[in-house]
Structure prediction request, 326 residues.
Amino acid sequence: MEEKGFSTSTFDTTKATLLPSLFLNGERFYIKMQTTSGDTALAYGDTGGGIAMIPEDVIDKLQLESKLKYSIMKGLMPIKYIPFNDIIKDKYIPPPIMLRERILRRPISRVSVPLLMIALNDEELKFMVQSMPFDIFLGQNFFMGKSWTFDYIHRQIWVNTPIPLSETNNPSVQHLGFKKNNTQESIFGHPSLKIEVNGEPIDVLFDSGATLVLSELGKKDFNTKEKTIGGSFIAKSIFDKWRKEHPNWKYYKGADYRNDVIEVPLVKISGLEVGPVLFAERPDEAWSVGMIQSMDKVVKGALGGSALKYLKVTLDYNTELVKFEK
Prediction:
């Protein structure tokens, strides 16, 4: 038995639609969503993040107490959630989908409506919100099942912009990798792709939400008062190799909270050269033990706003293709 809810058919999937958005220094973005209470919610777009959620503190702000529902889910129970269409009234905003390996019940009927999980107000979330406020967090399951254009150059977000399979041989197009089940269905929405640095191919996560949380040293290094900037990440083993082989590359010790940052002069993505690009180091285990749980392969880093800001990117989760343009 499934819980019934608002139909998602009001979302038009047939034509490209420009969504209202707000870009942070051209490196990261919010999608502006009109709520049923008449407010505008700032929804942070993070293709490399977890599931779509809303912090508890926002419930009061947007007067959503009456919309709360309770359920159970394997590994996270009990949990609270709000049906997506109980909050967002704009039919041009696509709903998130539920990850295939999750089963949500309330408590007898299976929940099948699009939803936003209520995020636990733990220390990690508090740190995130203090560093970069948002009303709604749009993780991997918001972007899955759709095609998107993230036009960093013109600061625009489009949905329903498919890449046809006939584009496969286009040098600016490459295949995306997704973790799949035995029937070849994507069970997570974390895309892998390749970049190239000094002729070396590197598998990375496409991570629109990648953020450097600046230390006081970092703020001085980058001459900013901002708490955060868009970034990219790289495994420590590669970070150390770059440091050894390229001592002339700019290096910022402890700039990203407690992590070091390196400036790579040139990164090649699908044949296009962009740069300079900031990469913050992360432990190799973050990828080989952590992210491998939701990815098709062990990647060595994440491509975020410090590289994407130079590009127009079309990401098609259905044909599993990505196209980069300058």
